[in-house]
UniProtKB/TrEMBL annotation:
It comes from Halostagnicola larsenii XH-48. Zn(2+) binds at C147, C150, C185, C188. The lineage of its organism: Archaea, Methanobacteriati, Methanobacteriota, Stenosarchaea group, Halobacteria. PANTHER family: THYMIDINE KINASE, THYMIDINE KINASE, CYTOSOLIC. This is Thymidine kinase. ATP binds at G15, S16, M17, F18, S19, G20, K21, T22, D90, E91, A92, N93. The gene is tdk.
């Protein structure tokens, strides 16, 4: 692809679960739509909580999105995009590391790229590719939720299995399993390591 202008850039919206990332993404997409800008939204095909072809926040608003395979489907973004100036990726923590290169190429091509996803695993470790995207982005916004235990600002994803903290050796990505999540602060966040 050839750059059509130098005005492309990358925006990252990150933070823990329940911090309002997708609400913020939807807000930005609406602003672009009101300005008459064409928007393309991609979501990892693993996440069908809100139906295959939409992104949604917990408050029920949604936006049409194109589901793509998070490991092998990213090249399809280039054929799926037409003239859109605004390209968004939701749940970006489910995508492979190739997302970094794809976002860089889209920005170099003059697009505004908006990426939303959590930056920490349930263990509280950096959750690629978000940390890499944060490093190369022009704009980064990190949101906090409210700790479900103590009410202080929360940056961490507490994974629970049958109401108990998950084990540290559990896989990082679990989709459709019986686990649940809470937002918690550093102090209240925990996992089993026995
Ligand atoms: Zn707390």
């Amino acid at each position: 692809m050839h750059a059509i202008t130098n005005s492309g850039w990358i925006e990252v919206i990150t933070g823990s679960m329940f911090s309002g990332k997708t609400e913020e993404l939807l807000r930005r997409l609406r602003r672009a739509e009101i300005a008459g800008q064409e928007v393309a939204v991609f979501t990892p095909a693993v996440d069908d909580r809100y139906g295959e072809a939409t992104i949604g926040s917990h408050d029920g608003r949604s936006w049409d999105a194109t589901p793509i395979d998070p490991e092998t489907g990213l090249e399809a973004v280039f054929s799926a995009c037409n003239g859109e100036k605004v390209i968004a990726f939701d749940e970006a923590n489910f995508f492979s590391h190739s997302l970094v290169d794809v976002c860089e190429r889209l920005a170099a091509d003059g697009r505004r790229v908006i990426v939303s996803g959590t930056d920490q695993t349930f263990r509280g470790e950096p959750f690629e590719p978000l940390p890499q995207l944060i490093a190369v982005a022009e704009y980064v916004e990190k949101f906090r939720a409210i700790c479900a235990v103590c009410g202080e600002p929360a940056t961490r994803n507490q994974r629970l299995v049958d109401g108990e903290p998950a084990h540290v050796d559990d896989p990082t990505i679990l989709v459709g399993a019986a686990e649940s999540y809470e937002a918690r602060c550093r102090h209240c966040h925990t996992f089993r390591d026995d």
